[in-house]
Automatic annotation (TrEMBL):
Name the UniProt record assigns to this protein: Nitrate ABC transporter substrate-binding protein
Top-rank taxon: Bacteria
Keyword Signal in annotation: yes
Signal sequence residues: 1-22
InterPro entries documented for this protein: NMT1/THI5, SsuA/THI5
Gene3D superfamilies, alphabetized: Periplasmic binding protein-like II (3.40.190.10)
Length: 330
């Protein structure tokens, strides 16, 4: 009996020192340098939400949605957070990428300028100067905004340049407005000047299309279905947690990257992002659960105005899946 008890004790001791299973290392590449929109990922990591799903998350800054999409297609990043219409352009050309969750279901595109210039509706753009970046996503959709609002290109002046030149044009008074995202460029202008910015949102004038979401390599998804589910579960929970604590979520960016911005504008930028998570159809649903109609409408708009190949309209569902999302409502 003593010998048996000793053997059992030895076995239990051996089990007690067996190391826990290592977490899966996952690389998430962002669409750009960090700003307020990215708060949920940092907050989820800081609060242990990813760790609870067995994920060791590494967040990398990006250099544009196109570059991040290329990295995911090449499997140098496991997941990407990108502009979904940009991903569609790559996918229709053969890139093996798919959206596993669409977070921004309302467009953040806008024409914005200093609030003290009192440019608050499309009519106010007449006679003004608008800064654009040729061929970017907003400039491609700009003609639709003009059509929806009854504006003509002859109603205003245009100056063109890259992203920083566009910002500088407004900051230095060479342009009255620029085309930008409500939670991104507006905060960069405020950081630089301390002045409030007013956005005329495209979505307020019937231009309803998706924006940012999580993408992955199609083969990676098939080979790692359980990991993709755990990642999307953690990311959904991270977004929900961040929505409840915007300032704490923004602070998590600075805790990870002290040069990531200023707490006030990071918080404000994230707060401007939250309303874009849902449409009227998904207001009771958990984050990322995009509707088929929203995606179909987005594909149609991209074909007509955004340079997307017309064959994309044959199967909009090829660009996204909700199969790896946690179920249930908010």
């Amino acid at each position: 009996m003593k010998r048996w008890i000793g053997a059992v004790s030895a076995a239990l001791m051996a089990l007690s020192v067996v190391p826990a299973q290592a977490a899966d290392k996952v690389v998430l590449m962002l669409n750009w340098y960090v700003y307020g929109e990215h708060a949920p990922f940092y907050y989820g990591k800081a609060k242990g939400i990813y760790a609870a799903e067995g994920i060791d998350l590494e967040i990398q800054e990006g250099r544009g949605s196109a570059a991040t999409t290329q990295a995911v297609a090449a499997k140098t990043a496991d997941f990407g957070y990108v502009d979904v219409p940009t991903m569609m352009r790559a996918a229709i050309k053969g890139a093996p990428v798919i959206a596993t969750g669409v977070l921004l279901q309302t467009s953040p595109m806008s024409a914005m300028g200093f609030a003290d210039k009192n440019i608050k509706k499309p009519e106010d753009i007449k006679g003004r100067t608008v800064a654009i970046t040729p061929a970017d996503s907003m400039t491609q959709i700009w003609p639709l905004f003009l059509k929806k609002t009854g504006l003509k290109e002859s109603d205003f002046h245009t100056v063109a340049g890259d992203g920083q030149t566009k910002l500088n044009a407004v900051i230095n008074g060479q342009a009255d407005l620029l085309l930008g995202y409500v939670m991104d460029q507006s905060m960069k202008i405020k950081d630089a000047t301390g002045k409030d910015v007013y956005p005329i949102k495209f979505a307020d004038y019937g231009i309803n299309m998706v924006s940012s979401g999580i993408i992955a390599n199609s083969d990676y998804v098939k080979a790692n279905a359980d990991l993709v589910r755990r990642f999307m579960s953690a990311t959904t929970k991270a977004v929900e947690a961040a929505e409840k604590e915007p300032k704490a979520a923004a602070q998590s960016i600075l805790d990870a990257n002290p040069k990531g911005g200023k707490i006030d504008t990071l918080t404000q930028g994230f707060e401007l992002t939250i309303p874009l998570y849902r449409t009227a159809e998904t207001k009771s649903k958990r984050p990322f659960q995009v509707t088929d109609q929203n995606m179909t409408d987005s594909v149609n708009l991209m074909v007509e105005y955004g340079g997307l190949d017309a064959k994309a309209k044959e199967n909009p569902k090829a660009f996204y899946t909700n199969d790896y999302l946690p179920k249930g409502n908010s």
